[in-house]
Amino acid sequence: MTRPAAVPTQSVAAPPTTEAAHIRKAGPWQAPDGLRQIPIWPHGAPDMARTPQPGENLEIAPNPEAGPGGTATAIYDVSAPTMTVFPPQGRNTGAAMVVFPGGGFQILAIDLEGTDICHWLTAKGITCILSKYRVPGSNHYWNAACKCHLTPRVLTSLQDAQRTIRLVRAGAGALHVDPHKIGVIGFSAGGYLVAQTSNILAPAYRPVDAADRISSRPDFAIALYPGHLCRDGKLFAGIHVTKQAPPTFLLQAWDDPVDPVCNSTLYARALDEAGVPSEVHLFAKGGHAFALRRTPHAVAIWPSLVEKWLADAGLL
After folding, report:
1. Which backbone phi and psi does 82 adopt, to 5 degrees?
2. CA 97/CA 76 separation, integer angstroms
3. What is the pTM of this model?
4. Greatest CA separation for the chain
5. Residue closest to 82 by CA, chosen among 129, 19, 12
6. Rounded to an integer, what distance in angstroms lies between the CA atom of residue 251 and that of residue 226?
7. CA separation for the pair 64, 247 (Å, rounded)
């Protein structure tokens, strides 16, 4: 059987920098004060035997767009995935959202597309679960569980994403969230995880406990400047969109230099053909990895568009 080409390696948008040097630190990323990182696998993550594990480390770069003295943090070589729960501030809407930061499956932009997003969501009464999913490995092979071609780095990330959604749903009572109001939001490579978890419902790993008997399908999905979905003018064959996919919000800029806008347009078309309701916003300017950065472009209004979409769906 001829092995198709690997999932295209996505370019990683470097954190904004000044002339100041980046700082590289050995050791795992630590959750903000008062919050606890929770390992998502009780006996270690699966499918890691043949994957190099050099040890998690951080790169901290100056980020003037985050304000005076602001920085941007990237996590490398994650092999021990976790989730960090950010409780809602003020009124609890009962909704929860799992956040998948981007980084081309090579790094995790943990603050720009992680903690910053959680602070915005919790201010709206949403419980936020920040996923620190695995980003190791390379190579390409057929995965029988999802019946699709995956690289180990994409497979392990999908395993972590599915497991995290299941754990949130299993622990809905303790988290004070509605198990039918659990959504996902992802950026760049994290947007690809949004599409995967929306459409690959079969477990991508062997069950490890009772939580794995619970559905990993999100109840709603949000993808900003998603990557890996568009290949040779077609939707990547690893994503088979069906009517089971959840209502979806898509947003991207036409001038995105990293992930072409076809990642959103082709996925939106597939959702429409499957009868899945979606809302799509395409902006002329904005580039890539804008997240909540300060920008003069109209794309900066995207949080209010998401909030309106969530409100219309009865989630706020």
Report:
1. -140, 170
2. 24
3. 0.89
4. 56
5. 129
6. 8
7. 36
Residues in a beta bridge with 253: 283
Residue pLDDT, tens place only, 227-282: 999 988 899 878 999 999 999 999 999 999 999 999 999 999 999 999 999 999 99
Tokens of 157: 């990330």
Residues of the chain with pLDDT under 50: 1-19, 137-143, 147, 149
Question: Do residues 113 and 104 touch, judged by C-beta distance below 8 A?
Answer: no
Cα-to-chain-centroid distance, residue 271: 19
What pLDDT score does 6 carry?
37
Write out the two tokens for 33. Answer: 């004060």
Average pLDDT, the chain: 88
| CA nearest to 281, candidates 306, 252, 254 | 252
Amino acid letter at 106? Answer: Q
Nearest to 231 by CA among 203, 281, 282, 195: 195
Per-residue tokens: 149: 């071609």
Burial class of 210 by CB neighbour count within 10 A (0 to 12, 13 to 18, 19+) = exposed
Element (H, E) at 127: strand 127-132
By the 10 Å C-beta count (0-12 exposed, 13-18 middle, 19+ buried), 113 is classed as buried
Dihedral (Cα; 185, 190, 191, 195), 10-degree rounding: -90
| Closest to 103 (Cα-Cα) out of 164, 193, 184, 200 | 193
Exposed/middle/buried for 234, CB within 10 Å: 0-12, 13-18, 19+? exposed
Using the structure block, give the residue that is written with the tokens 């599915």: 162
Q: Radius of gyration over alpha carbons of the chain, in Å?
A: 18
CB 72 within 8 A of CB 63: yes
